Amino acid sequence: MTAPSSRGPLNEIQRYQQGKSALPGHEAPLKLSSNESAYGSSDAAREAYVAARDLLHRYPDGSQTALREAIAEVHGLPAEQIVCGNGSEELIGLVVRCYVNPGDEVLLTRNHFVMCPIYARAQGAKVVLAEERDDVVDVDALLRAVTPRTRVVIVANPNNPTGTYAPRADIARLVDALPEDVVLILDGAYAEYVTEEDFDDGATFAIERANVVVTHTFSKIYGLAGLRVGWAVAPPAIIDTINRLRTPFNVSAAALAAATAAMRDQAFVAEARRRNREALDVLLPGIRALGFAVTNSVANFYLIDLSTVAGANTADAVMHLEANGVIPRPAGPDGRLRITVGTPNENQRVLELLAAYRAGLS
Ligand SMILES: Cc1ncc(COP(=O)(O)O)c(C=O)c1O
Fold first, then answer.
1. Do 96 and 119 belong to one domain?
2. Residues 28 and 169 in one domain
3. What is the pTM of this model?
4. CB 32 within 8 A of CB 338
5. DSSP 8-state class, residue 338
6. CA of 113 to the centre of ligand 1 (A)
7. HSE toward the beta carbon, residue 152, CA cutoff 13 A
8. Is the pLDDT of residue 362 over 70?
9. pLDDT tens track for 112-157
10. At residue 327, what are phi and psi to the nearest 5 degrees?
11. Which domain holds residue 324?
């Protein structure tokens, strides 16, 4: 039997590997592999989710009006320039499918969200990577990598898996220098965590310019990863194009209801942001005190370079953590160790395990 042949570019794609969630021998392992929220989701979101069960026989609102209006109010954006997706990954994928032809180039940073090259390659496009400077997105390197074939540039800010951010001034420089026919996606999956004053998500560019799309997700600080909801703010013509390709009911009724309530509960978001910052302030110095290098993360995860200690490496550290019931994730092009921020007790456990790993080396 011969299988029907799929489109050529699909043969080049390596399947996305989900963060591990089970460990043999551990009934309830501590899963710190997928940058999920340590603080669950807002009560209001869960109540709205439960209430939605009474209308499960109805199709969802394909125009996503209530959720778009809630986002618009909270973020001070025009509701008609917002579109919601089945996770923000769907929206990133839709933009790539809308604007990228075979032979075009999609420009990413060296560290990037791993679905981005998959979407680009599926279009038959070439993936171009720009170097970073000290694990931070380097706008000059990105601009040097732009060619006449570049159609889409994707910058996650903060980036994954580094957790570092590019300040507003750098993003403004990128926006100003990019040719107008290149779409810039600013992926703000972790933007809500950032407390630094010189950061913003770039949404004003999506309003003022014709070529900037900013994406956000309910999967991270809102703690609704299982529901699959993301949103984007974009210029009217891009919103119109996305809406031509988007399946009309891409966000389920329960997801719309829960996300709308979650968006209106900004007190929950502020508390999660505060707790995450507090956790980073313990974790990052704690890891450095052990001799390991760790990125200056402002997100809900951090990336450890174990090679700063003689004899240490990612594979052994993963083995040590997993043997003790903690699941981290090797991540990025140079295989460092990415760990999600947990509760204070969970973070303490990680620090203790890393200290034990370190002690076992000498
Ligand atoms: C940088 C980045 N962008 C986008 C996403 C997609 O998130 P979702 O599709 O759950 O909204 C993720 C998920 O981990 C991410 O890390």
1. yes
2. no
3. 0.97
4. no
5. E
6. 7
7. 30
8. no
9. 999 999 999 999 999 999 999 999 999 999 999 999 999 999 999 9
10. -105, 110
11. 19-40+267-359
Q: Report the pLDDT value the prediction gives residue 160, as an integer from 0 to 100.
A: 97
Q: Name all contacts of 4-13 with Cβ < 8 Å and 24+ positions apart.
A: 7/124, 8/124, 9/102, 9/121, 9/122, 9/123, 9/124, 10/122, 12/121, 13/118, 13/121, 13/122
Residue 295 CB-density burial (10 A; 0-12 exposed, 13-18 middle, 19+ buried): buried
Residues 88 and 212 in one domain: yes
110 with 140, same domain? yes
**DSSP single-letter state for residue 57:** T
Cα dihedral 65/71/75/79 (nearest 10): -20
Q: What is the CATH number of the domain that holds 118?
A: 3.40.640.10
Which of 71, 220, 341 best tests ligand 1's pocket when mutated (most atoms within 8 Å of CB)?
A: 220
Regarding whether 323 and 353 lie in a shared domain, the answer is: yes
In one letter, which amino acid is 161?
A: P
Q: Among 33, 88, 114, name the best residue to mutate to test ligand 1's pocket (greatest count of ligand atoms within 8 A of Cβ).
A: 88
The two structure tokens encoding residue 215: 């994406």
329-331/336-340 β-pairing: antiparallel
Amino acid at 46: R
Q: Any idea which residue has 């200290």 for tokens?
A: 355
Ligand 1 centroid – CA 340 distance (Å): 14
Closest ligand 1 atom to residue 218 Cα is 11
Instruction: Show which of 264, 284, 310 is a domain's final residue.
Output: 264
Domain boundary among 232, 264, 296: 264
Q: How far is the CA of 27 from the centre of ligand 1 (A)?
A: 27
Residue 330's Cβ-count burial label (10 Å; 0-12, 13-18, 19+) is middle
CA of 143 to the centre of ligand 1 (A): 24
Residue type, position 210, single letter: A
In total, the chain counts a number of residues equal to 362
**Higher pLDDT pick, 91 / 362:** 91
Residue 1 located in a structural domain: no
Same domain, 244 and 287: no
List pocket residues of ligand 1, CB cut-off 6 Å.
Answer: 35, 87-89, 113, 156, 160, 187, 189, 217, 219, 225, 230
Expressed in angstroms and rounded, the spacing between residue 289 Cα and the centre of ligand 1 is 30
